[in-house]
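Notes to self after the Tuesday call (sharing in case useful).
The group wants a holo model before anyone commits to mutagenesis around the pocket. I volunteered. Ligand is flavin-adenine dinucleotide. Logging inputs and output together so the record is complete.
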Amino acid sequence: MKTQVAIVGAGPAGLLLGQLLLGRGIESVIVEARSRDYAEHRVRAGVLEHGTVALLEEAGVADRLHREALVHRGFEFTFDGRRHRIDLEGLTGRCITIYGQQEVVKDLIAARLASGSPVHFEARDVRVEGFQSGTPSVRFSTLDAGEVKLECDFIAGCDGFHGVCRDSIPRGVLAIHERVYPFAWLGILAQARPSREELVYANHDEGFALFSMRSPSLTRLYLQVPPDERLDAWPDARIWGELHRRLAASDGWQPEEGDILERMVAPMRSFVAEPMRCGRLFLAGDAAHIVPPTGAKGLNLAAADVWVLSQALARHYAEGHDDLLDAYSQTCLRRVWRAEHFSWWMTSLLHRFPEGDSFRDRLQHAQLDYLASSRAAALVLAENYVGLPLAGL
Ligand code: FAD
Ligand code: PHB
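Result:
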């Protein structure tokens, strides 16, 4: 089997790259370890930046998004029993879009299948080879195709944090920068009407909480919990009790309760592997970097990476120039490190740190108070939250 670009991973990064390449007449084959059903039902991100929506439009997969997504002009944060609104639109002229990652993935898979371009789900023993020479390939096996050697010009490693691509790069090539946080998020998806219009981020003595949503009948909520927390320590009544307590403020608002459809515990980590390239293997999205979800940046960064990569590959094939491919890692890392800083900062601002550090608590408080009273401070937050512009879009 032969193609121009072999894409490992059918998450948002791999699928969007496939669509963007297709739009420029570049062939690809996607190889995914999990089933289509699993990929389409993995509940994760929900906040799309303006630039991410523009990319989905460019890829021709934004029709349902425009019909069903919720456009938010601001969000709120709560501290000391007070609520304060960040007017994203008033400050930046930009809004954010609430649309589940699994809906993005469903739309991208539908477009991929409609185009007739190959995607191999449930691929086993995926290996990437030869990317330091001129003859890269991806080996895998599936029930239908048997053992496959997929020869290609380039490999896009879009296989997430636990994938094989990054680990296949020889020792010493990558520098790893990492921060592991002393807490995790317990996330639930509830069959409940979101009873407030915008997201609420809460800083509370008992720990962080977040009120978010997916649709007019689905609420998404998160609680800070200890790292490696077991889900069975959190029966429904404890989850709702803690959400009510942490999201409360003097206005008396409380989230509406409903059946819990999905629950998970997500670890919190900051991670960057650089450079994001080794020979003809290009890493994109979570395969190269992780941010804690507090800044809602992970999916948006993945989209930005593959935009840069699609432009660089287009220049290679159309004009025979590799300057953009050579600049890929540096171009992406500039945005990645801005988002790393923002996500680390939001996380540090809003969570309770277990060591009980009164100095840190006072700093958090001073910063939250500043955000609530200074337009300049709120603008820095808003500009980062809505996302910096994407070159060339
Ligand atoms: P992934 O989505 O991880 O996709 C990688 C794919 O590769 C998967 O389908 C996987 O099955 C496949 N794969 C793995 N190994 C192999 C292999 N060996 N061979 C073949 N395929 C393989 N981001 C935001 O922007 N906004 C948010 O609001 C937000 N909220 C979040 C909330 C939570 C609780 C979590 C956990 C994350 C959140 N994120 C958010 C982050 C976002 O979900 C990720 O950054 C995003 O999924 C990255 O996309 P990706 O395609 O790079 O990786
Ligand atoms: C979500 O809706 O899942 C969500 C929203 C904002 C975040 C993280 C996750 O910062």
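Two things stood out.
The first strand starts at residue 5 and ends at 8.
The first helix runs from residue 12 to 23.
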